[in-house]
Design brief:
155 residues; alpha/beta; Ribose 5-phosphate Isomerase B, Chain: A; 6 helices; 46% helix
């Protein structure tokens, strides 16, 4: 069974539940590590917890296919996630970008905003990501260059 881990702050509780429902309707097991109420929390803490678990699970061979992170905009939580070694967090604007996030960027985290009015449903963006695969080839070369930047800290 596919497994996905999800986390959210208080700015995206409803969106998180929508995403969980959608993923479960596709037969995916979802680990909910976000908050379920509107009480204020700090999105970097959620990003750190979810990405830490994603990477640890990878190392254990008990892996999640990817993670989903949600805050009010998807921006702050993605910035935090992308500071963590091994994370490639994409913030898709639409279905096309969600597919590219997998095919070209081999993202392991997707971020969305609970206060954003998307022109295409987040569920359809998730489907586009789920139903695509990383293309490899020249794209893998570029992804390797992204990860090399992380290692060297080049400016
Ligand atoms: C929380 O109020 C809000 O700042 C957060 O959810 C997110 O939008 C940050 O980028």
């Amino acid at each position: 069974m596919k497994r996905v881990i999800i986390g959210n702050d208080h700015g995206a509780v409803d969106l998180k539940f929508r995403i969980v429902k959608h993923l479960e309707s596709r037969g995916i097991e979802v680990a909910n590590r976000g908050v379920d109420s509107g009480d204020s929390v700090d999105y970097p803490d959620i990003a750190a917890a979810v990405c830490g678990e994603l990477l640890a699970a990878d190392a254990d061979g008990n892996s999640f296919e990817f993670a989903v992170l949600c805050c009010g905009t998807g921006l702050g939580i993605s910035m935090a996630a992308n500071k963590i070694q091994g994370i490639r967090c994409a913030v898709p604007q639409n279905i096309f970008a969600a597919r590219m996030a997998r095919e070209h960027n081999n993202a392991n985290v997707l971020a969305f905003g609970g206060r954003i009015e998307y022109h295409e449903p987040v569920e359809a963006m998730l489907d586009a990501f789920l139903d695509s695969t990383a293309e490899g080839g020249r794209h893998a070369n570029r992804v390797n260059k992204i990860m090399a930047l992380e290692a060297t800290g080049d400016r």
